[in-house]
């Protein structure tokens, strides 16, 4: 799509993770360390409507996407300067971008949904239209929608954030505001509702 999202997509998660991890005493983690890289050939399979089911072994999740995703990593840091890696995948349809990101909490930190939300709104200089607490089984989350102007283009950001054990997932469905309507809402729900995390439990 022609939207000016290309340079912004990789920047949007940074405020989330930099501002949303707070140091506080926590019990030692007993989970095994997750894999640090995506497999060279992630598993995908076709689904009706030309979408694919993307299965990330390293990310421990699956999701429906409008096409084969592009994978990347991005180094970030907590407010205290502790470095960590974010893992990103993005796939585009004719009218939207689906961005799925995840990272593992730095030991000794607690994730803060409010700071994550505020960081994303600030990153795009947007306005939040609504938000609500959500859950995915036993996992807590937050959903909200942002409207922002990106280089002259009005854009809508539908965002879901989940905490699954010590891993944080950030899902963003980004579309031009002019496409708002029943079809774009269906497409966003197709992406967001399909997200399934895998856990060690």
Tell me the layout of helices and strands:
Blueprint: H1 6-20, E1 21-23, E2 43-46, E3 52-56, E4 61-65, E5 70-77, E6 83-92, E7 96-104, E8 109-111, H2 113-123, E9 127-136, E10 139-150, E11 153-164, E12 167-176, H3 182-194, E13 196-197
Antiparallel strand pairs: 1-8, 2-3, 3-4, 4-13, 5-6, 6-7, 7-12, 9-10, 10-11, 11-12
Helix pairs in contact: 1-2
Please outline what is shown here.
With 201 residues, the protein is α+β, with helices and mostly antiparallel strands. It has helices at 6-20, 113-123, 182-194; strands spanning 21-23, 43-46, 52-56, 61-65, 70-77, 83-92, 96-104, 109-111, 127-136, 139-150, 153-164, 167-176, 196-197. Mean pLDDT is 83; it is low at 25-41.
Uncertain spans: 25-41
Strand order of the largest sheet: 5-6-7-12-11-10-9
Number of separate structural domains: 1
**Class of secondary structure makeup:** alpha+beta
What do we call the CATH homologous superfamily? Mog1/PsbP, alpha/beta/alpha sandwich
How much is the average pLDDT? 83
Multimerization status: single chain
Radius of gyration: 16 Å
The largest β sheet comes out as: 7 strands, antiparallel
**What global shape is seen?**
globular
Which short descriptors sum up this protein?
19% helix, 201 residues, globular, single chain, Protein Transport Mog1p, Chain A, 3 helices
Structural summary, described in words:
The chain has a single domain, classed as 3-Layer(aba) Sandwich (Protein Transport Mog1p, Chain A), CATH 3.40.1000.10. 19% of the residues lie in helices and 46% in strands. The protein has 3 helices and 13 strands. It has helices at residues 6-20, 113-123, 182-194, and strands at residues 21-23, 43-46, 52-56, 61-65, 70-77, 83-92, 96-104, 109-111, 127-136, 139-150, 153-164, 167-176, 196-197. Helix 1 runs antiparallel to helix 2 (113-123). The model is unreliable at 25-41 (pLDDT under 50).
